[in-house]
């Protein structure tokens, strides 16, 4: 079986040969461009459960992509195997029937003809942030989600899920946040902050005395003032909000 680096190299060689950009590959496979970039940069392992999707776009077999078989040979389908066992007169009948079925199929316009995969992409939620009193998170969630492609921003680094209502009406409970990872968030912008081990989504503010605090948009919640005794880490800035 191929290593992760070998799989990515094979994919790169195939898209170069076919003239497919990384962005176009992401669209055809149905994943976010940022996720595809992490595969190519080798900061995330190739998703073995998506080998069929990649192989379909590249025109190779999943087995060849993963290195399970040495040559890119597709096993004959059951219908071909049966067809080849028939005598010629029966083969002609099968061919005539198949042509009739194809002609009928081409006349049918289904209300489901618009492929969902063209309108949705797959990405992963890596974190949980509190729109409330903070939440602890020891490990990444790495929860797979399908997202409407038109509602996904062009550039972001990671996705977090919201728990709580302190940022209503702009951000609702269970919304997904697209985050640009940065160690600095400008004043009056909404960011993701880790305070004493708890993750928050809040607006960064500063009062007239020069003291920094995190503000909720929901007036039911008090400001969280930051002090020198707090363990403070800025995770990133919110660049997009996704609601169901």
Automatic annotation (TrEMBL):
Domain HTH cro/C1-type: 17-65
Coiled coil location: none
Domain HTH araC/xylS-type, chain residue ranges per copy: 5-42
Domain of life: Bacteria
Transcription recorded as keyword: yes
Keywords: DNA-binding, Transcription, Transcription regulation
Gene3D superfamilies linked: lambda repressor-like DNA-binding domains (1.10.260.40), Umud Fragment, subunit A (2.10.109.10)
Keyword Transcription: yes
Molecular function, one GO term: sequence-specific DNA binding
Pfam families assigned to the protein according to its UniProt record, in alphabetical order: HTH_26, Peptidase_S24
Xref: SUPFAM superfamilies: lambda repressor-like DNA-binding domains, LexA/Signal peptidase
Protein name in the entry: XRE family transcriptional regulator
């Amino acid at each position: 079986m191929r290593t992760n680096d070998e799989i990515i190299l094979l994919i790169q060689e195939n898209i170069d040969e076919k003239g497919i950009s990384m962005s176009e590959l992401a669209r055809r496979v149905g994943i976010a461009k940022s996720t595809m970039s992490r595969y190519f940069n080798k900061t995330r392992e190739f998703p073995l459960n998506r080998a069929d999707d990649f192989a379909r776009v590249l025109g190779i077999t999943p087995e060849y992509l993963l290195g399970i078989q040495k040559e890119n040979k597709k096993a004959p389908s059951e219908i071909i195997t049966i067809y080849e066992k028939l005598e010629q007169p029966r083969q002609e009948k099968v061919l005539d029937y198949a042509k009739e079925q194809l002609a009928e199929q081409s006349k049918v316009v289904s209300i489901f003809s618009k492929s969902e995969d063209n309108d949705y992409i797959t990405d992963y939620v890596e974190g949980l942030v509190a729109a409330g009193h903070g939440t602890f998170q020891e490990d990444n969630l790495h929860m797979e989600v399908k997202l409407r492609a038109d509602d996904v921003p062009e550039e972001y680094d990671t996705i977090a899920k919201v728990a709580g209502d302190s940022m209503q009406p702009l951000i609702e409970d269970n919304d997904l946040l697209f985050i640009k990872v940065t160690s600095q968030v400008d004043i009056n912008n909404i960011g993701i902050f880790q305070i004493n081990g708890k993750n928050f989504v809040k607006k960064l503010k500063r009062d007239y005395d020069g003291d920094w605090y995190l503000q909720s948009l929901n007036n039911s919640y008090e400001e969280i003032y930051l002090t020198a005794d707090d363990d403070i880490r800025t995770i990133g800035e919110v660049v997009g909000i996704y609601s169901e």
